[in-house]
Amino acid sequence: MTGEKSVVDKPSTLVWAVRLLYLECAALAGLTIYLIVLDLTSSSVNVGMAVALTVFAALGVAAVFFVARALGRRQRGARGPAIVVQLFTIAAGGFLLQVGPSWLGLVLMALGLLVGLLIVLPPSTRALGID
């Protein structure tokens, strides 16, 4: 009986959506570290633009982390921001399809679609208390 209840409490669709959101957070953290290294080692750089881009990436890390954590805690209001994050992920993938690398654009678009789908599937919706 306990095994059945834990499955209802934590559906695999929601668990995987949260895992993939944390993966997105880790990828953004890696991008932020890469941008910091570029900021510190580049000889010709527009300092204002470089710092702004790095700060924006760092804010993205924090935002995605808090959305993933809220979704993992099954907070009802986390679904909307999680969908918005996925729309941004799909948009970034579309941009990369145009300017390259195309393979990364396809991966981002597929990831955004997958996580968005996992969040709106009925088991996830029930677990979040949205009926």
From TrEMBL:
Keyword list, A-Z: Membrane, Transmembrane, Transmembrane helix
Highest taxon in the source lineage: Bacteria
Stretches that traverse the bilayer: 20-37, 49-68, 80-97, 103-121
Keyword Transmembrane found: yes
Protein name per its UniProtKB record: Integral membrane protein
